[in-house]
Specification:
It comes from Catellatospora aurea. This protein is of the alpha/beta class and about 200 residues long. It is about 35% helix and about 15% strand. Strands 3-2-4-5-1-6 form a 6-stranded parallel sheet. Helix 3 links the parallel strand 2 and strand 3. The N and C termini lie far apart (about 40 Å).
Length: about 200
Amino acid sequence: MPQGKPETVPDDGLTTRQRRRSPVLAVHTGIGKGKSTAAFGMALRAWNVGWPIAVFQFVKSPKWRVGEEAAFRALGRAYDESGAGAPVTWHKMGEGWSWLARPGDERDHAAEAAEGWAQVKRDLLAQRYGFYVLDEFTYPMHWGWVDTADVVETLRTRPGSQHVVITGRYAAPPLLELADLVTEMGKVKHPMDMGRKGQAGIEW
């Protein structure tokens, strides 16, 4: 049997067409680089088929202008001007690089994360978007800023066909259990291990 092919087809009564329209919850976790990059690649596909997109960056500083943000804002403008693609909404909160971030400095990052999650819940309930990127969202759960049980239940009961991808290390087991797609990014080597600094075009 080819690797990766499911051994059985679930006897759930769904047609092939219905399975192709099932809402997907994806989680990209692990210590390797590329979790957010893969999520934004999925968002590009979503944009191409016309799904409204919402990006919530939970740990990237609002002061930073990362490459993905600039690209997706340009795609949002392209939709506004020509109707091609889909609208894009971008929210940022947080304190900096995820692997360096620590709770408890001068800003109330816990409150910002909680409000960001509250907005996600409002949007899900209203079925405002077709595709959500919750970037670095595992960290607020890991640090206790957002209740994991609430996240799992909200995502489990989200209405309609809203697709969600969550990125970050330390993904909670209940989230992994709920997810339809889980990818763990491993690390073999990283330039920062050898003292090299992050650089434009590679890290942002």
